[in-house]
Amino acid sequence: MQHRFYFIHLKRSLDMTDEVDLASQSEEEFRQYSLSRHQAYALPINGRCYNCEESTSGNFCCVECREDWEKRKYFERQKKVD
Ligand SMILES: [Zn+2]
């Protein structure tokens, strides 16, 4: 009886640890994602579109260019990880 109780107690604490790990992992992922998003918008303004190099007052001449560039950056980062 004593052994059985101990096993259940151990199993419960293991489950709780798993839950905590999962929560902190997704929180870290989200933090990394927000950070990369922030960096994409904190680029120095050089008067030209980062995607097609057309003259513009911001980092990109249009939304399409910004999305294109962000996608390319994202894939470049994925490649580096591998
Ligand atoms: Zn452009």
TrEMBL record:
It comes from the Bacteria. This is Uncharacterized protein.
